[in-house]
Design brief:
It is built from 13 helices and twelve strands. It is of the alpha/beta class.
């Protein structure tokens, strides 16, 4: 099916048919490109239909992300200030003490976060690294919070260990389309990422996987990324959509900003393609106006990272988020 024919089919479908689309498991690039090509109001309407059919449209899940080990990563991800290959001003740091992680988790819970995510700048954890991380997971779990970790690529058996420690979610983003991937990262492949995601799912851990837009990819590339995510069986439980924050010293430091409406279109398409997944506004919220964030919520975003920091990038302060939620009549999950 060509993009134009797919657009005609979508445009002619009644409202009830739009709500039946989520039952499908496979999306073609042409169909997703057709969604991107819809008039903005039509796309938002379809996204709202899908969102309301599966979620409370005025409820947003809040997560907090803490970097438990910063800097010194051996990978060459072109967007990342934590890579040891680039001069970004970040120094390699040791793994945080468990007491410090637990205190941060308690503070996040007190501010209204329901999920606590722990990120480490590794290619993947070694056995000696995994033991203290498992203790952190147990400690955070004891607070009654959902736990999430992003630790890089996992070796056989490691996902099962994390599951036994109480890990609820594992984050491992696809980052970008398969075609664009080599332009951003060369030290591992996207297939390596799928391999880790397979280990996570097999272990019974929920999958958190999304991508980064604004890295010089085309709209077709964004459609490809969303196709890859949506065609997972099943799709990820959480889908973080990051808007690139260009970091000085990285290869993408001078990347051209993505048009804000194109970002909202990406959120809306993600919502339509993955109707039962949490779609999360992630990196880049610090640079977004309240009005842009409101459009993203209208497009179907129903999760945010909440707190002052997102790994090494600034994130809107909790007080600003509280004020925005009040203005929009949103409730925290």
């Amino acid at each position: 099916m060509t993009a134009s024919l797919a657009l005609d089919a979508l445009s002619d479908a009644p409202a009830e048919a739009a709500l039946n689309v989520p039952a499908r498991h496979f999306w073609s690039r042409a169909e997703v490109e057709a969604l991107f090509a819809l008039p903005f109001a039509d796309l938002m309407y379809r996204a709202q239909q899908t969102h309301r059919a599966n979620f409370d449209a005025n409820a947003v899940q809040r997560s907090t992300l803490l970097s438990i080990k910063t800097g010194g990563c051996s990978e060459d991800c072109g967007y990342c200030s934590q890579s040891a290959r680039y001069t970004t001003g970040l120094e390699r740091e040791a793994l945080l003490p468990i007491a410090e992680v637990l205190a941060a988790a308690q503070a996040a819970k007190d501010k209204g976060a329901s999920r606590f995510c722990m990120g480490a700048a590794w290619r993947g954890p070694k056995k000696k690294d995994l033991e203290p991380v498992k203790e952190m997971i147990r400690a955070v779990k004891s607070l009654g919070m959902e736990t999430c970790a992003t630790l890089g690529m996992l070796q056989p058996g490691q996902a099962e260990e994390l599951k036994d420690a109480g890990l609820d979610y594992y984050n491992h983003n696809l980052d970008t389309s398969a075609e664009h991937y080599i332009r951003v990262i060369s030290t591992h492949t996207q297939s390596d990422r799928f391999d880790t995601l397979d280990k996570v799912r097999t272990a019974g851990i929920k999958v958190c996987s999304g991508g980064i837009v604004g890295m010089g990819e085309t709209q077709r590339g964004r459609a490809d990324l969303l196709c890859e995510l949506a065609n997972m069986n099943p799709p990820p439980d959480s889908v973080p959509i990051n808007n690139l924050v260009p970091m000085p010293g990285t290869p993408l430091a001078d990347a051209k900003p993505l048009d804000p409406f194109e970002f909202v279109r990406t959120i809306a398409c993600a919502r339509i393609l993955m109707p039962t997944s949490f779609v999360r506004l992630s990196a880049g919220r610090q640079q977004m106006s309240d009005e842009l964030q409101a459009l993203c919520f209208l497009a179907g975003a129903n999760s945010i990272f909440y707190g002052d920091k997102l790994l090494t990038a600034d994130n809107p302060e909790a007080s600003r988020d509280e004020a925005l939620f009040e203005r929009l009549g949103l409730q925290a999950i």
